[in-house]
Amino acid sequence: MNGPLLDGCRDPQYKKVSTKSCTLSCNTIANKFVELKNGDVFEIKNFCFNENNFVMLGFVYDKIGDLFVKPCRSSELDINVIKPKISLKCVPFNQFYRKLVVLRYNESDKEYVSFPMLHFK
Fold this sequence. Notes:
Blueprint: E1 9-14, E2 16-18, E3 23-25, E4 33-36, E5 41-50, E6 53-66, E7 80-84, E8 89-92, E9 96-106, E10 111-116
């Protein structure tokens, strides 16, 4: 794969990674969004190595609001309106928490909605 690399990152690079419970891929919108252990929404652009650590390169998204507020706030169900940050970030693969589904919400403002995959945690 010829994806983006940050300083300190190196080959081999991968476009797809499979774990026991799911497949993650840089190329398909259905498989490239994850939640990190710290709660960040992360869009994967590349898998590679940084020193001896397997890492994901991509963009963190800001949680900017709720999709709905009744009967409860959507964020209580981990459903959030999100917007991408600009800078590429390197995250160790072991920070991967769960896979997300992300749909377009407001295309003119580059906003999306993230939903947790219910069958995976």
